[in-house]
Amino acid sequence: MIRRQSPLQPGLTGSATRCRGRRRARKDPRQKGIALVMAVTAIAILTVVLADMHESTSTAYAISVANRDRLKAEYMAKSGLNLTRLLVAKEPAIRQVVTPFYQALVGRPPPQLPIWTMANDLLKPFCDYEATQRMNTGIDFRAADGLGDTDATCTIVSFAENSKINVNAPLNFTGDRARRSISMQLFAMMGGYQSPSPYDPLFQNLDRDGQLTSRLDVVSSLIDWWDQDTDRTVFDPGRSTVESGGSEEDLYRRLDDAYDPKNAPFDSLEEIRLVRGVGDDFYATFVEPQPDNPSARIVTIYGSGAVNPNEAPPEVILARLCSYIESQPLCVNPVQASAFVQLLNTVRSLIPVPFFTRVSDFLTFVEGRGGPRDLYPMLQGFLGADNPLLFTPVTIPADVRSEIDNSFVTAARILTIDVTGLAGCRYFDQEEGYCAGGYRGRVRLNTVVNFHELWTPPPPNAGGMPGLGVYHYYRVE
């Protein structure tokens, strides 16, 4: 008999083939659950990938939002800056409107109005529309196009540079006259003519180099930084004279990291830190008492040397005045100096208008003269002639009156305009009406703008002062 072979495998019977198939179908017990492990591994890998993608996307989004808000803040600050420049350019037209009221009050036309000091309030609808809406101004700004659509705000701090004591090379005179004028201002500013002076502790401790620096050392170093010779300036406050003695470079070459004085005018306020004897205490007292409030500083490098009594702090006015009449009680008696400062601050807070149309009006005030509409007689009528709040009037010698008259001015031509733009409030408190969570974007524009009508562009350019002024200094923070 012929046996038929299985079609499944040659040489095997059907029964054998089925047994081997069952053996092949039987799996190794060690391979059980491998699919679950692979699935879990795949999920873990996908989780890591997705987490990385989420982190990258979130970071990119946060950076994009921050850049967007910073751009908003920057252009908001630029808008505030340009609007302030426009406001200053329109000051003559505003003064014409105010002239009849001012003349009726004091009997003379007004001086230049410090309109720049009110820029933050006058430009509030453009800089902070939401705050304007909450204020009861009597004006409805909702019909104006574009206001309130930026989701950003700005704050403006603006002041005249001639309201500070100038430590730089003066514009009006040169040589020994320039050195003497600045030396006397600096010595008076540092309380040198007072005994005791509130600034005495600044000059009684060793500096960072282990040296004791006196007032006269700081005065000499500041002068020697910008004068063009290499001789050390020696200021004699008793005779109000300046002389030359020794080398000004020796003080700097003895330092561990030696360098030479510049012998050229200051280019920035930060450069004052390089002057020998100017430490952190001096800088924090006179140059930057409040880092976020530039108007609080006492010194400047952008002024002409003349001080504006309508805007300068009383301490600055007193320092400039006492550089000529240093022996008067107002300059040597701390009580008299304090009365002068407090009186002028109080009057300015009650009557926020400029008092002095001409420099002669200011000199009439410090001499205690004038008619019933002048400031000192008016204060005598209110307070009484023997009131201790009034300072003792000074006597200005005839030989220095003309020089004092040239050291003060009632107008401003160089202004600092400091604008801070804010955008992207993290959390706004509706009840209190302010941003309680901080801002994602913050840009500060620190500028010095020249509005002097006699300015001309450097050769070979021709032309005159633009209507919005020219930038003397521009910095983005």
Give a structural overview.
The protein has 477 residues and is of the alpha+beta class. Among the domains are: 62-161 and 413-476, no CATH class; 168-270, no CATH class. It contains 16 helices and ten strands. It has helices spanning 14-25, 34-89, 91-106, 119-122, 124-127, 129-134, 175-189, 215-226, 250-253, 280-287, 314-322, 329-332, 334-350, 359-366, 375-383, 398-405; strands at 152-160, 165-166, 231-236, 241-247, 299-300, 414-425, 428-429, 434-435, 439-450, 470-476. Strand 3 and strand 4 form a beta hairpin. Helix 7 (175-189) packs antiparallel against helix 8 (215-226) and helix 7 crosses helix 11 (314-322). The termini are far apart.
Structure characteristics:
477 residues, alpha+beta, 4-stranded antiparallel β-sheet, two-stranded parallel ribbon, globular
